[in-house]
């Protein structure tokens, strides 16, 4: 479910989240109002290429995944079709292993011999609802343009609609452009529920990420049709789809400034003639970074209606013309992060411990209003209200990595929220994700990641490059 990246990589921008619910392994967070922005991510390795790499170089005949609320335990395999040097095609197959085992048990058949057992298994394997077939094509049009096309045919006995996707990536000298059309588009809200939008289109322009300095982002997002709960998600929802997924057009822009600070960086020599398991995790240090910026959103259509929860998240400038179904929202945001690492990740045991914490202030106006109220009350020797103190509490994200042995790392990512109204337990852990990482030393910085989300009850194996 989670990106399992260090929080500073995503910051306030929505990156595709990993999920085993679909063949391509991706879902998009429902756009915030006004942040996080809708589509905002660079080109990443497709799911088909990940599985192909694990089959070819990691001796993995099948790649497993698990989604408790949908199809259960599934096995994946890819057949590649190298049309040319600039054109890569693949057939992605899914086999619902859990459903086959259940069907065998429910049949009540008790084979008396090995041959009878094989016939029974063969009969159940002919069930078409056990399979999903997807086709994807990646075409390098020019050195700066990549076109991705995919078509997934879902069965699993649920009569799910086929998914079509077209994505164009273009690299400018200092910017990335992404144009995307999906039908239906899969989104996940902050409660973990999945929603299908019949047609979703987006155009995204972003400046290249840098360690420090200014950056900006512009996104235009258009939804057509009423969103429905994802057919493979068997959980019951207590609320409707997020307002930002309703039909309409929204234009979002943001400008931010980032600054990094090094408190300490090790100057001790590394082991000679020993390559680190990951070159990006080879330098012990303690550092921090800060981001401050402003975000603007203009929307037309049903998506311009703000729910009560959305109104509480931001106290920025807001204007809504209900007769024209249009709205405008502007606000400030900020983020502060701290990273501490011990070890060079060269030795066989316990040579890496890395901790990262990020504190987000998604609404600057709400924070300033709460801080002003708290200061005034304290100056007047009065007790501030819980609402004001709650307004200045940030959203926290914590990550911990620990080397176990050799290239194996254990990792846990989790959100932490403060709810002062709950006096018995005011601090709550939200959506932890546990992962086992295997660093591919020969590639410099790459890893296979097997992660599990207890809240979503999802498990997935992925391949990632150049991520810490």
Molecular structure report:
The protein has 468 residues and is mainly beta. It has helices spanning 7-10, 47-57, 97-107, 114-125, 308-313, 364-379, 386-391, and strands at residues 17-18, 26-29, 63-67, 72-84, 87-96, 131-142, 145-153, 163-171, 175-183, 185-188, 194-197, 199-207, 213-224, 228-229, 248-265, 285-301, 317-321, 326-342, 353-361, 395-405, 408-418, 427-439, 446-453, 458-465. The strands form 2 sheets. The chain has an 18-stranded antiparallel barrel. A 5-stranded mixed sheet has the order 1-2-10-11-14, with no helix packed on it. A hairpin with a 2-residue loop joins β20 and β21 (408-418). The longest helix has 16 residues, at 364-379. The two termini are 18 Å apart. The model is unreliable at 1-12 and 33-43 (pLDDT under 50).
Kindly summarize this structure in a few lines:
The chain is mostly beta strands. It has helices at residues 7-10, 47-57, 97-107, 114-125, 308-313, 364-379, 386-391, and strands spanning 17-18, 26-29, 63-67, 72-84, 87-96, 131-142, 145-153, 163-171, 175-183, 185-188, 194-197, 199-207, 213-224, 228-229, 248-265, 285-301, 317-321, 326-342, 353-361, 395-405, 408-418, 427-439, 446-453, 458-465.
